[in-house]
Structures are given as C-alpha cells and as structure tokens.
Amino acid sequence: MARTFNRAQLERELRAAQRRAQEEARRRVNAYNREVDRVNRENQRRVDEHNRKVARHNNKVIDDYNRDVARVNQHNRRVDPRTLPPLRN
After folding, report:
1. pTM score, whole prediction
2. Are 77 and 83 in contact (CB under 8 A)?
3. DSSP secondary structure string, 36-51?
4. What is the DSSP secondary-structure string of 12-73?
C-alpha cells in the first residue's frame, strides 16, 4: 500500500526540528556567555589586584617623600634664625 503525503505531520516535524535547533542555539549562546563572564571576572580580579599593588606602591612613595620633607622642615626650624633664641653677650 502506498503512503500518502501528510502535510500536517511534515509541518509538525518541521516545527519540532526548529524548536530543537533554537534550543541548541540557546544552549550554545548561554555556554558562550558563561565563559565570557568567567573570563571577565578573572580579568577584573587581576586588574583589581594590580591596582591595589599600584596604590600600595604610590602610598609608600608619598610617605617616603613626606618623611623626607618632614625631616627637612624639622631641620629648617632648628636652624632658622627667626626661631632661635636671642644670643646673649
């Protein structure tokens, strides 16, 4: 007996195949987005770590400079003739 062409069945199978293809595409996109998010988080962690190191270094340089300035200011106050007690003869 010859099979007849069933248009409704063909359309059902076509829609099911489209749904499967869309779901597979959605799964691949979601997996890609998760990987991008993971890489972005790792990169941000590394940037934050680098920025913390730079900030520590900059603070150390500023503290060292200020320490030297304070030492010079203290010396200048000691030897400034306006701050010295008057000489007695």
Report:
1. 0.59
2. yes
3. HHHHHHHHHHHHHHHH
4. HHHHHHHHHHHHHHHHHHHHHHHHHHHHHHHHHHHHHHHHHHHHHHHHHHHHHHHHHHHHHH
pLDDT score at 4: 80
Closest CA to 18 of 7, 8, 26, 29: 26
Q: Which residues contact 77 (CB under 8 A, 6 or more apart)?
A: 83
Q: Which two tokens stand for residue 67?
A: 């320490």
Structure tokens at 34: 């998760």
Average pLDDT of the chain is 90
For residue 70, the number of C-alpha atoms closer than 13 Å in the C-beta half-sphere is 6
Q: Quote the tokens at residue 10.
A: 């063909």
Instruction: Encode pLDDT of 40-75 as tens digits.
Output: 999 999 999 999 999 999 999 999 998 988 888 888
